[in-house]
Structure to design on (813 residues):
């Protein structure tokens, strides 16, 4: 099917050519982002770019893209796609890939989360897209889970009274700590903002083997995130509306992922959302739960909870994967002249929340938003730019 | 075996509770009651059947005449420091109502005096030794939660700063039973929905020192990779059942409430019918005492409270064995370090390392640094105090449009 054919099939008069950027061996094609546009009306895959020939050929076969390139810059320059999926889970190439797309005047980008490893890169990505008029969607697919929006409706209806605290937990698996914070925490922090709005300030503490992370503990993190370290994270966020949020992750808390999710505490009830379970929202009719209490948790049924009017239109479409829901939303954003529902500004904000916890750990201070330091806080920690932590080490060694 | 002679200094509600507990224990004898109000002495003395010779309005006379082994000081917090100094000067063991004092410099002075006199100080954090806590402790020692990683506690929903000093001191002391030592504190305090400013520093109800914050969330960094969170959030209505503690381990969880203790045999709670089966732990009550009901919030009892009784029992055992009470003065001071750390962290927006080198009250220091004197007096009864505080906050909201935290130091990170 040609672009014009797909456009006619779509009935929109528009057709979209898609390019895919992957990097086998350095982040691959995270969460099948390369297939996000597959099967959508009015869309055709034009080309694939991957420095690894085997991976490149496999992706071309999966997507049906007729051409493939070893260099993503060459791909976007020659193909001039309308839409590009930037798929690697590794973060250190994201900014360069987006810049290349901006230079080639693509119209929309679907970028794997988290956006980047540093706020400097996030700023560059957002700025490049803004200047080029690119609609940037970032793979925070949890925003398209209808249960998230049913919970928003429940909160708005007063089902749990006034929402005051949201507790988020990462998976706490072998990646527990900073890697979990970055890889899965970015989803949860994004959701925290969806419920609570913008962050005013944050606290954070990073530990390794039970002690505060020290300069000598800083390592090169996984997935190209740059300087990192720590197998334990506790962060506290104060949102502008007065809601408090927490995030916690520790290494090897279990492999069943049950902890991964959110718990919303209101003045009259609790909502529990566990990412690993389907149909998994539970409600408790009191502001705190204790065994021996006469109340019981209720497993909520979707049929009784209407979505709020501002939920993304695709979130309840069972014919679409979560990636496809985002892809359709990205195309709609282009056509309607609006931002995608999971846009670059939101994605940068979740990285900022991660950086804030590290910055607070480094400085020993409550840090306000937007963060003044856009550099990787772990990098500064490694350089010894951390008087409070050093002081603590001296005290502990006494 | 020795029967310990106990003098009760202060005959209000907490004094009566202490007297009932010491009266009920077979190894202690209440030999004296003292208060500045004769009617209170007589009411309690009549209830206990105390002789006229055991009733005093002068504490010095009481100690000289009755030579007690223990003087219990169950009085308002603001009186702890002067009364502890006067009693300890006689070289007698004491138990004092929680928290130990209203500032660290006071606690330091008191404990130095006790050390000099060679006597013991116990701080009345009775929840730490109550039967449900002992049940939770046994389960913890049996390894039922695996490696402890996180502790969460909450008070009853009082105004945050007042709740911190009143119930938070229990909560934190309970957490220390498992977390052992806390080496730093961070905290957030909001009043009227905004970060506290030096104007929001107020004297607490019931003489519990200087506080700030209607809603306080504090995180405690214990040694050994254990973190704690303490929630001190004002509720529309105070609820005793909200007071509790939950321990999160690598293998399971424990919940403590004053009316029971429960164990979850997996680390994650999910209310899905599979991962939500809390097992009630067997709780051993002393002879003559029974399980407390969740609805049992009556503090005007004529019988000894089981927690107070257990506290007395621990003191008896400690004195027999020549050791300190589990809730001893050093522990009580560490609790106070955490309380003061919470207030300091909330005020200054900084993580506070413990033990603090500055031992004065951090909120008064904060006010001084902003050119403010000590805050004006407020009503002592909690309800009246709350009305006054609500009026103050409403007045301030009406007359100021200053940005949140306007009087504070900037909290942004350094470039």
């Amino acid at each position: 099917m040609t672009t014009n054919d797909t456009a006619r099939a779509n009935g929109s008069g528009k057709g979209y050519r898609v390019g895919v950027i992957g990097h086998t061996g350095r982040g691959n094609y995270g969460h099948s982002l390369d297939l996000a546009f597959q099967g959508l009306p009015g869309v055709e895959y034009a080309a694939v770019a991957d420095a690894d020939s085997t991976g490149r050929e496999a992706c071309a076969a999966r997507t049906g893209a007729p051409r493939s390139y070893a260099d993503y810059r060459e791909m976007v320059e020659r193909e001039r796609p309308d839409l590009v999926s930037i798929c690697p889970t590794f973060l250190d190439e994201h900014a360069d890939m987006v810049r290349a797309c901006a230079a080639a005047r693509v119209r929309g980008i679907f970028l794997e989360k988290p956006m980047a490893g540093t706020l400097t890169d996030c700023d560059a990505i957002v700025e490049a897209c803004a200047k080029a008029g690119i609609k940037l969607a970032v793979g925070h697919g949890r925003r398209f889970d209808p249960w998230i929006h049913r919970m928003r409706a429940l909160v708005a209806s007063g089902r749990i009274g006034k929402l005051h605290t949201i507790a988020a937990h990462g998976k706490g698996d072998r990646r527990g700590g900073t890697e979990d914070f970055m890889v899965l925490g970015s989803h949860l922090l994004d959701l925290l903002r969806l419920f609570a709005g913008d962050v005013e300030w944050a606290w954070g503490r990073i530990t390794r083997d039970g002690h505060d992370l020290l300069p000598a503990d800083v390592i090169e993190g996984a997935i190209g995130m740059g300087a990192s370290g720590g197998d334990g994270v506790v962060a506290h966020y104060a949102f502008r509306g007065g809601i408090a949020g927490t995030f916690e992750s520790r290494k090897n808390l279990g492999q069943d992922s049950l902890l991964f999710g959110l718990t919303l505490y209101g003045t009259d009830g609790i909502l529990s959302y566990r990412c690993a379970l389907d149909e998994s929202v539970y409600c408790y009719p009191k502001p705190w739960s204790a065994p021996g209490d006469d109340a019981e948790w209720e497993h909520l049924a979707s049929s009784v909870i209407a979505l709020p009017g501002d939920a993304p239109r695709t979130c309840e479409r069972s014919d679409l994967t979560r990636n496809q829901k985002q892809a359709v939303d990205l195309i709609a954003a282009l056509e309607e002249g609006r931002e995608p529902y999971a846009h670059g500004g939101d994605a940068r904000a979740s990285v900022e929340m991660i950086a804030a916890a590290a910055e607070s750990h480094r400085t020993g201070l409550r840090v306000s938003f937007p963060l003044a330091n856009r550099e990787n806080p772990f990098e500064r920690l490694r350089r010894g730019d951390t008087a409070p932590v050093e002081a603590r080490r001296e005290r502990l060694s006494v | 075996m020795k029967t310990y002679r106990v003098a009760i200094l202060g005959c209000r509600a907490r004094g009566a509770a202490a007297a009932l507990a010491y009266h009920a224990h077979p190894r202690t004898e209440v030999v004296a009651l003292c208060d500045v109000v004769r009617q209170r002495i007589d009411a309690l003395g009549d209830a206990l059947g105390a002789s006229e010779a055991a009733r005093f309005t002068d504490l010095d006379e009481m100690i000289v005449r009755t030579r007690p082994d223990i003087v219990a000081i169950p009085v308002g917090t603001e009186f702890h420091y002067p009364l502890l100094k006067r009693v300890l000067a006689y070289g007698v063991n004491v138990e004092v109502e929680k928290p130990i004092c209203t500032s660290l410099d006071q606690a330091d002075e008191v404990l130095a005096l006790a050390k000099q006199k060679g006597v013991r100080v116990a701080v009345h954090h009775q929840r730490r030794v109550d039967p449900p806590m002992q049940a939770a402790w046994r389960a913890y020692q049996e390894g039922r939660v695996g490696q402890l990683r996180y502790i969460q506690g909450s008070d009853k929903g009082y105004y945050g700063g007042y709740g911190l000093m009143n119930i938070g001191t229990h909560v934190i002391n309970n957490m220390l039973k498992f977390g052992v030592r806390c080496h730093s504190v961070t905290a957030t305090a909001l009043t009227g929905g905004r970060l506290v400013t030096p104007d929001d520093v107020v004297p607490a109800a019931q003489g519990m020192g200087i506080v700030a914050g209607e809603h306080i969330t504090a995180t405690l960094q214990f040694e050994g990779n254990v973190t704690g969170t303490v929630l001190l959030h004002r509720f529309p209505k105070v609820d005793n059942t909200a007071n509790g503690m939950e321990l999160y381990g690598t293998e399971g969880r424990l919940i403590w409430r004053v009316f029971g203790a429960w164990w979850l045999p997996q680390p994650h709670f999910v209310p899905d019918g599979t991962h939500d089966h809390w097992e009630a732990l067997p709780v051993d009550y002393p002879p003559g005492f029974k399980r407390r009901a969740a609805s049992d919030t009556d503090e005007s009892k004529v019988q000894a409270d089981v927690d107070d009784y257990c506290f007395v029992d621990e003191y008896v055992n400690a004195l027999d064995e020549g050791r300190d009470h589990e809730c001893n003065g050093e522990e009580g001071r560490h609790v106070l370090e955490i309380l003061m750390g919470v207030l300091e962290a909330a005020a200054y927006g900084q993580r506070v390392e413990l033990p603090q080198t500055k031992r004065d009250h951090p909120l008064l220091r904060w006010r001084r640094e902003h050119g403010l004197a000590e805050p004006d007096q407020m009503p002592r009864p909690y309800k009246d105090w709350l009305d006054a505080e609500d009026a103050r906050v409403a007045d301030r909201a009406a007359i100021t449009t200053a940005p949140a935290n306007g009087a504070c130091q900037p909290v942004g990170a350094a470039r």
